[in-house]
Amino acid sequence: MANLFDYLEWRGDLTLGQAPFNDIDSLILSRLSYLPFDHVVPASLQSRITIAEASKLFFASEEASVRAIMKDDIHLLKAVAASDRFRDMNLMGYVNQVDFEDEKQFSAVVIEMDQDFFYVSFRGTDDTIVGWKEDFNMSFTTPVPAQEEAVRYLERIGNTLPGRFIVGGHSKGGNLAVYGAAFCPKEVQDRIAAVYNNDGPGFDAAVLESEGYQNIRHKIKTFIPQSSVVGMLLQHEEEYIVIHSTQIGLMQHDLYSWEVVRDQFVYLDTITDSSKFIDRTLKTWIANLDPEQREQFIDGLFSILEQTNARTLKELTENWYSSARVILKSFKDMDESMRQTMSETLSLLFKCAKQSMSISIPKPRPFHFGERKESK
User: Fold this and answer.
1) DSSP class of 2
2) Radius of gyration of the chain, Cα coordinates, nearest whole angstrom
3) What is the tens place of the pLDDT at every residue in 94-134?
């Protein structure tokens, strides 16, 4: 089944002037922000480097390829740099901030697609544990630092660059794209042509009811795979479009598994029952916890992970045996009240899952002796 690499083979020789910008182009550009462009793409919005030139610089450093989050990201950069459609687009304004003290992970890049027409690409969660902690923090506080940074970033772009913008991202990057567009100044907001949220989590009611969100709601395009987990977190007021992924379960979050035909995704009518089950379970679980309880649980969970001294998920998994021992010891060494909070919160999660299961599976109609079953 075809994915965005096949799309690049089919349409990579056509410029935007020959074939208009589409949803798959947005997905590709939203993924470019995941590449570690440190010392490659200028931080300034006044300096530019083409994708083709950035690719040469990137691959000149052996460390750059090693630091890429996924191997497919490396293949993507090579493919777009070789294509007529993307190679001459300019990159600028690269930002990559990881702050362990403030629990912030934020990265973004601006792509000049055409004269006075820009794509603002927000990176999703990277491999850092602090990045995942910030994601979890969204369940009890808004805004998180990355969301505030997204607003400042868009304001800076609007004050510096002319023309119009498309804003987008994948995973948390999609959430940042929507939040930034909703809360940036009105004069910048009016220049945003579209906002792409590719399987990114939603928001709490306060954000959805805000004037800024309502102003850009009609510009938001949200895509989720059929068994979405991440994209169904929290709340969405805008309609979402379901697309087919060739992966299963949580692995469908991998946008390289999203199926395409020519210049469109393969669309489905609805999400799967498993996605509805997980969505209902998590929403019920969160609804039964007040913000303070959510914060205590998440702080407790990540305080255990911090004891391993791992800064990234890669470090955590590479030293899994020793990390597991530290995690178990840290849980045992917790004070009684925190350990009880963790246990009770996890017990509530299992209870909510059991309740969701009973809702999902209809009970069979009782069969009484002497009653004749209908033949199939």
Assistant:
1) -
2) 22
3) 999 988 788 888 999 999 999 999 999 999 876 666 656 76
Identify residue 42 by its one-letter amino acid code.
Answer: P
203: tokens are 């928001």
Q: CA-based angle 208:294:176, to the nearest 5?
A: 40
Topology of domain 4-271 in CATH is: Rossmann fold (3.40.50)
How far apart, in whole angstroms, are the C-alpha atoms of residue 207 and residue 211? 9
Pair of tokens at residue 6: 């096949």
Q: How many CA atoms lie within 13 A of 344 on its CB side?
A: 12
- Three-state SS for 164? strand
pTM of the model: 0.82
CA–CA separation, 181 vs 154, rounded Å? 7
**CA-wise closest residue to 233 among 73, 125, 310, 306:** 125
> Highest-confidence range of 127-141, 148-162, 321-335, 361-375, by mean pLDDT?
148-162
For residue 376, what are its two tokens?
């199939």
Residues 6+ apart with CB under 8 A from 134: 103, 104, 105, 125, 144, 145, 146, 172
Return the H-helix or E-strand segment holding 216. Answer: helix 211-216
Which residue carries 């009782």 as its tokens? 366
User: Taking the alpha carbons of 342, 347, 350, 352 in that order, is the dihedral positive or negative?
Assistant: negative
Are the beta carbons of 123 and 108 closer than 8 angstroms?
Answer: yes
- Going by the DSSP 8-state scheme, the letter that residue 364 receives in this structure is P
* SS3 at position 50: strand
Strand spans (E) along 28-116 = 49-50, 90-99, 104-114
Other C-beta atoms closer than 10 Å to the C-beta of 164 total 14
User: In the chain, what's the furthest Cα-to-Cα distance?
Assistant: 83
Question: Which amino acid makes up residue 319?
Answer: N
Backbone angles phi, psi at 197, to 5 degrees: -115, 100
For residue 355, the 8-state DSSP code is H
Identity (one letter) of the amino acid at 96?
N
Give the helix ranges, DSSP H, for 71-160: 71-82, 129-137, 145-160
- Where are the domains positioned within the chain? 4-271, 288-359
